[in-house]
Amino acid sequence: xxxxxxxxxxxxxxxxxxxxxxxxxxxxxxxxxxxxxxxxxxxxxxxxxxxxxxxxxxxxxxxxxxxxxxxxxxxxxxxxxxxxxxxxxxxxxxxxxxxxxxxxxxxxxxxxxxxxxxxxxxxxxxxxxxxxxxxxxxxxxxxxxxxxxxxxxxxxxxxxxxxxxxxxxxxxxxxxxxxxxxxxxxxxxxxxxxxxxxxxxxxxxxxxxxxxxxxxxxxxxxxxxxxxxxxxxxxxxxxxxxxxxxxxxxxxxxxxxxxxxxxxxxxxxxxxxxxxxxxxxxxxxxxxxxxxxxxxxxxxxxxxxxxxxxxxxxxxxxxxxxxxxxxxxxxxxxxxxxxxxxxxxxxxxxxxxxxxxxxxxxxxxxxxxxxxxxxxxxxxxxxxxxxxxxxxxxxxxxxxxxxxxxxxxxxxxxxxxxxxxxxxxxxxxxx
Length: 431
Known about the structure:
Elements: H1 2-23, H2 27-47, H3 53-64, H4 66-84, H5 88-93, H6 95-123, H7 130-140, H8 145-155, H9 159-186, H10 204-233, H11 239-260, H12 264-277, H13 279-282, H14 285-312, H15 321-353, H16 359-365, H17 371-378, H18 386-426
Family: Belongs to the monovalent cation:proton antiporter 1 (CPA1) transporter (TC 2.A.36) family.
Main location: membrane
Domain Cation/H+ exchanger transmembrane: 12-414
């Protein structure tokens, strides 16, 4: 395991250096594309009769296990760091729109993409059951907070739009994982890392109980962790100890959430937001910079590592004509479902909270998918239906990172301009 992680770390550092020195794409996009290109080169060399490197690289990736690496590894740190970097007070002011989008958009998108995937798989000659198609809808619907937060840092969007996008992404991630676990339970596939047995809860009542336990339990447990962190950190002034306490809170809290059968992702988001809300009170002037700097650096390094892993995992993907056609169709359908699933619930909050009409387009095109979708797909049990789901998931994620990530800036600028243009009409006294 240590050798495999060392290999991943060295390859990631090399890819990041090449991108930063010569290519100069946004780091996450650059290392993803470089990793995917390196994977394709290894596949090509293997088919030309030069085996060895592909087998070694595949063994490294399988040893690390992407699902374990993300869901049971770095996800807790990434979510906590992302939430810690946000303005909690601003998020509370926009809580109605954020929670509406996080819940209803994810549920609508799961249904739309799931049924669309069922039809597309049948169209190309792949017999994938409806429940597996719905599982694909659940894992691909949430926007990845890691990818989205990195995008927002580069885009410098207005605070109101940044809070909406980041907040929705953080919470719909947790909701999406809970929906996925509930569907996996209904399909008799087990708890998929939730800490429960899953298969014993395959009734409608059991699925609803699991959803409630995961979601509400995760929110409550996150609040408990945040309160505990506040009490511990406020009484000391040594930044190394404060970093250690917050790190223990995150890693230990995530493991405890899994043991309790509640949503670890939601718990980390709530804990991070609570610490962010009180950071001026709990961290002294001379320690705040050290603690926040640690979490920002950890976020950036793990972010780069994750996206390199995404690119390199192309080695584990099987490709065929029907799968390529299904992938192309579902990339387009996923974008359409994202737009519709945002537009419908957004109509309930847009007028009341004063968002510009262009915000829906920004939420659609800026809703990147990333490592969480791939980790959930790779965590599915061995089955004849697993390969289609995994391959299409890779295609949607790579398109999202490479195409949407590189072209979202014009959409950001238009959304910001639309917000400024509508502000005088809706709030004539606002300076």
